[in-house]
Amino acid sequence: MMDSVANIVSVLFSRTPGVLSFTSVQFIIFFTVLYAIFTIAPAKKRVRNLILLVFSLYYYFRMSGQGIVILFFISLSDFLIATWIHKAGSENRKKQLVLLSLFIDTGSLGYFKYANFFIGQYQSLFNSSGIFIPLSIIVPLGISYYVFKSLGYVLDVYRGMIDEPERDFSVYLLYTSFFPTIIAGPISRARDLLPQFNAEIKLTEQQISRALFLIMAGLIKKIVIADFIAANFLDRVLETPNYFSGFENLMALIAAPLQVYSDFSGYTDMALGFALLFGLEIKNNFNFPFRAKTVTDFWRRWHITLLDWFNEYIFSPVSLSLRGLGKPAVAIAILVTFLVSGFWHGAAWTFIVWGLLHGLMLILEYFTAAWREEGIKKKQHQGRRNFWAALTFLFIAASFVLFKCNSLDNAWTVIEKIFSGFDEDIISDWVSVYYGVLIVMAGGYIMHYLPEQISTKLQLKFRQQHWAMQAIIVACVIYFVYQVIATDTKPFIYLEF
């Protein structure tokens, strides 16, 4: 009897990394139990919130262990600071409290995520003979996301975007720890999500059907496309590009954006689906990004909630403070925003250069927008737009090689090999060896470029099925994903950030 209890406790509180990732069997089991409890419990917001809070904290503890202390500390400090800001009698006092929140939030993020990077850079510049021994710092999972969510809440209260700060700390803690978004977003605004937690439950059959469809789509994107491409081709090329031909590096360049997109949008689809099962709507992060005609358009379609956050809390304040400079003010604001964006993604020069390149490209597009549009109008046809779209995709693909590589040297080697080590004789051999990867890549891009009406019709068709048939379809998809595709499931890419 005691052994059985010990085994149950071991399963419930083991700290195996990634054990409760959305794609793990254990998560599906735990979530099924959670949802069964939710469906039989009273349909009241307090009951729903309590169930979600307990599971969210449990989920985060299983994923990040002691990181839950940091999550609780940041949530509590910003909850109190926002309340004090609302009650403050002077503007000066409010600004002091905002600075306190900035210090706590960015200080926590800076220490856990960037301390070793800065120490290492300092030592390499001023003490090259010394050996750098990194500090023993475990980065709490999702810290970049919940810090931005919590800081955004404080800034919204300060700016009057939220009339009344949240009075119930348990509701605010649920907002910061909400399990679908805690690890990798989307970065939901407090003014969008908190009112939903405080509203009574309104869950319809259509919402459930849409949620199940999104979860299935996410699983397929993640495991069938992203993990298959990464495990069977992409990772091995980007880790050692010198050992592969120019053609293989070119195929890796084409595969990289699809793999990152399928991984991250797959996570987002599942996050949206899980939230929707509880009657909660969160904003999508993607809108067919590779259909973009310009890099500016790409960033309106890619990681939308992050760019919204940067636009509202960094770009707009910087450009507004420099508005006397005219167009250069916009250019400076763009550059600052994307340097911060690159650094937000990771403490590595690959991410900083990635952000810098995107910032410079957006500045170039900003200053040449009128000229490009005039050229398109004069030609009176679609060819010029398609030309800019092709250049945009090539830039995005090359930048995602930088995003995926573990060093600037590897990223440069990929580009160098494409132009200096291209061997067309290897193409037929590559196709015969990697035909599965080629099929998945082609299928992934075809799905991305198909008219949106097709996806809408598929969702509608699924929604029209009897609930029993929907359950059978979901079970078949899960079986296909876990049994037919012979590859190891990899952690979600954006769990690193």
Largest sheet: none
* Rg (C-alpha, Å): 24 Å
Q: Can you tell me the overall shape?
A: globular
Number of strands: 0
User: Which H/E pattern describes the elements?
Assistant: HHHHHHHHHHHHHHHHHHHH
| First-residue to last-residue Cα separation | 42 Å
Strand content: under 5%
Number of domains: 2
The structural class is mainly alpha
Low-confidence stretches: 4-9
Count of alpha/pi helices: 20
Classify the helix fraction into a percent range. over 70%
Q: pLDDT average, as an integer?
A: 87
Describe this structure in words.
The chain is 74% helix and 0% strand. Mean pLDDT is 87; it is low at 4-9. The protein is mainly alpha-helical and 497 residues long. It has helices at residues 2-13, 25-40, 45-64, 67-87, 91-126, 143-159, 169-177, 190-197, 205-239, 246-276, 295-301, 304-321, 327-345, 349-379, 383-404, 408-420, 427-433, 435-449, 452-463, 467-484. The protein contains 20 helices and no strands. The chain has two domains: 10-201, no CATH class; 206-496, no CATH class.
Topology readout:
Layout: H1 2-13, H2 25-40, H3 45-64, H4 67-87, H5 91-126, H6 143-159, H7 169-177, H8 190-197, H9 205-239, H10 246-276, H11 295-301, H12 304-321, H13 327-345, H14 349-379, H15 383-404, H16 408-420, H17 427-433, H18 435-449, H19 452-463, H20 467-484
Helix pairs in contact: 3-7, 4-5, 4-6, 4-7, 5-6, 9-10, 9-18, 9-20, 10-15, 10-16, 12-13, 13-14, 14-15, 15-16
